[in-house]
Amino acid sequence: MSIIVKAGPNDSTDAVIKKFQKRVIAEGIVQEIRDRSVYKKPSQMKQEYLAEKRRKIKRSRRLNR
User: Fold this and answer.
1) 4 contact partners, CB below 8 Å, separation of at least 6
2) Could you give the CA distance from residue 26 to residue 32 in angstroms, rounded to a whole number?
3) pTM of the model as a whole
4) pLDDT of 14-44, one tens digit each?
5) DSSP strand E in 1-65: where?
């Protein structure tokens, strides 16, 4: 999983760094590192999954009215 950002002819160093940061966020690398930094029990992961599923169902019901 490597991220390659090529600098254009008119891009400054700051612009290239911003492109890199946006791509890292879009790939979800930062979130994955945060999730892996702390061990979660399988039961806790299941609870979070079910809570997310409930939130999505509530949101879809609210938007479809």
Assistant:
1) none
2) 12
3) 0.56
4) 999 999 999 999 999 988 999 899 999 999 9
5) none
